[in-house]
Amino acid sequence: MNRKRPLILGLVIVILIIAYYLISPLFIVKEANDDLPEVSYGMMEAGVKVEPVQKILSASLLPYAHDVSGTVSVYDSMGQKTLRFEDFETINSPDLFIYLATDATADEFVNLGEIRATKGNVNYEIPLDVDLEKYDTVLVWCRAFRTLFSYAELKE
C-alpha cells in the first residue's frame, strides 16, 4: 500500500499540471490596440511617391467552436499587406494561432503566428509572397486540439 502512495501522488500532480495548462488560459484576456497600418514617413521624406494605405479585403468573423466577434481586414501599404482584426473578442486557449488558409480545414495554410491578443485591434504582417486569392480564409486555430475557433472568408 505504501508503494502506491508516491505513484498516486505523482499522477495527481501530473493531472493538476495538465489541467492548469488547459484551463488557465480561459481566464486570461490578452488585449491589444495596434494602430492602423500606415506609410513609412521616411519614404515620404525621401521624396518617394507614396500611395495611401488601402483596405483591399474584409469580412466578419464567424464562430465555429467558440463565440467570436469582430471583423478582419487586409490593408495594403505600398505592397506590404497587413491582416487586421478590429473590435476582436474571443476566449483564450493554449496554442492559438492565426492562419491564412485555402479553406476552414487548415489543410493548406500560411501561419501568421501565435495569437497576440484575444480582445481589441491587432495587426499581423502578411509575407510578401502570399497569394491572397488562394489563401482567402482567416482562421483562429488551436494547434493543441486541432480545433477551429473561428474563421472569416475575405472578400473585396
Question: What this model shows, in words?
Answer:
The protein is of the alpha+beta class. It has one domain (4-153). Helix content is 16%, strand content 42%. It has 2 helices and 10 strands; from the N terminus they run αβαβββββββββ. It has helices at residues 4-23, 41-45; strands spanning 31-33, 54-60, 62-63, 68-77, 80-90, 96-101, 109-114, 119-126, 137-142, 147-153. The strands form 2 sheets. A 5-stranded mixed β-sheet has the order 1-8-5-4-2, with no helix packed on it. A 5-stranded antiparallel β-sheet has the order 3-10-9-6-7, with no helix packed on it. It is elongated and about 80 Å long.
Short description:
With 156 residues, this protein is an alpha+beta fold.
What topology emerges from the helices and strands here?
Blueprint: H1 4-23, E1 31-33, H2 41-45, E2 54-60, E3 62-63, E4 68-77, E5 80-90, E6 96-101, E7 109-114, E8 119-126, E9 137-142, E10 147-153
Parallel strand pairs: 1-8
Antiparallel strand pairs: 2-4, 3-10, 4-5, 5-8, 6-7, 6-9, 9-10
Main attributes?
156 residues, alpha+beta, five-stranded mixed beta sheet, five-stranded antiparallel beta sheet, 2 helices, 10 strands, 42% strand, elongated
What Rg is obtained from the alpha carbons, in whole angstroms? 20 Å
> How many helical elements?
2
* Count of β-strands: 10
Shape, principal axes of CA atoms: elongated
**Overall SS class:** alpha+beta
Strand-residue proportion = 35-45%
Whole-number mean pLDDT: 88
Distance between the termini: 68 Å
Give start-end ranges of low-pLDDT stretches. Answer: none
Order of strands across the biggest sheet? 1-8-5-4-2
Question: Main β-sheet, in a few words?
Answer: 5 strands, mixed
Oligomer: single chain
